[in-house]
Amino acid sequence: MNLILLNNDDFITEDRVRLSGRRLDHIITVHRAKADTQLRVGLLNGKMGHGLITHIDTDFVELTIELSQPPPEKLPVTLLLALPRPKMVKRVLQSITSLGVKQIYLINSHRVEKSFWNSPLLQPEHLHEQLLLGLEQARDTILPEVHLRKLFKPFVEDELPAVCQGTRALVAHPASEQFAPLQPNHPTTLAIGPEGGFIPYEVDKLVACGFTPFSLGERILRVETAVPVLLSKFLPV
């Protein structure tokens, strides 16, 4: 937890917060903080700054807060990701959030098992938890939006044209012989398929929507590896 994230409900006065639970445990056990210790804090979907501990015990911690810094710039990427295996959802969402993506579409694909969509990890409270962990890791406060799209064809035909309008649309496809140079400062809609990639029908539908297929090369990467590798190409130097 490189940033203590605050909610509006944490404030007991205009510039003081009281925290308990997971955040208190982290402050005590990891930061080993005491009174007068200064910590990095940020208001969820707001500014960042510092908090000075004025009181701490086993029940709660109080901090005087000063928030004056803007959060880091978002990554100029809208990500379309075929729903990963449930056991990978946590790790992948945390990585995506840490890298600064703010619009995430978890979409269906022929190679996505139907049972994946029944995972309790897709419940809003569980998704929210993973996004918070990603923000805390990266010292960011702006919560990404996660959209679940269980039907591939209606999404691509009816919704995706508006989603990718004004962006460079790319689909990672292992069978492609084209190597697309990724442009860090150019708004991009990036589609990443499941293990084994999108099937030809799905690639054709994306191409009809304006997407350009590209490959990372001869190596075939797992989704949890390919996602951070591709997104890192958009990080500012």
Could you describe the 3D structure shown?
Helix 2 packs parallel to helix 6. The protein folds into 2 domains: 4-69, Hypothetical PUA domain-like, domain 1 (Ribosomal Protein L25, Chain P), CATH 2.40.240.20; 77-232, SPOUT methyltransferase, trefoil knot domain (Alpha/beta knot). It has helices at residues 21-29, 86-98, 124-138, 152-163, 200-208, 223-232; strands at 4-6, 11-13, 16-19, 38-43, 48-56, 61-69, 77-82, 103-107, 145-149, 168-172, 188-192, 212-214. With 237 residues, the chain is an alpha/beta fold. Helix content is 29%, strand content 27%. The model has no long low-confidence stretch (mean pLDDT 93).
CATH-assigned homologous superfamily of the largest domain? SPOUT methyltransferase, trefoil knot domain
Order of helices and strands: EEEHEEEEHEHEHEEHEH
Mean pLDDT level: 93
SS class = alpha/beta
- CATH fold-type name of the largest domain: Alpha/beta knot
Question: Low-confidence parts, pLDDT < 50 over ≥5 residues?
Answer: none
What kind of assembly state do the chains in view correspond to?
Answer: single chain
Coarse shape? elongated
Q: Whole-number radius of gyration?
A: 20 Å
CATH class of the largest domain: Alpha Beta
Ends apart, CA distance between termini: 24 Å
Portion of residues within helices: 25-40%
Task: Assign the CATH architecture of the largest domain.
Answer: 3-Layer(aba) Sandwich
Count of DSSP E strands? 12
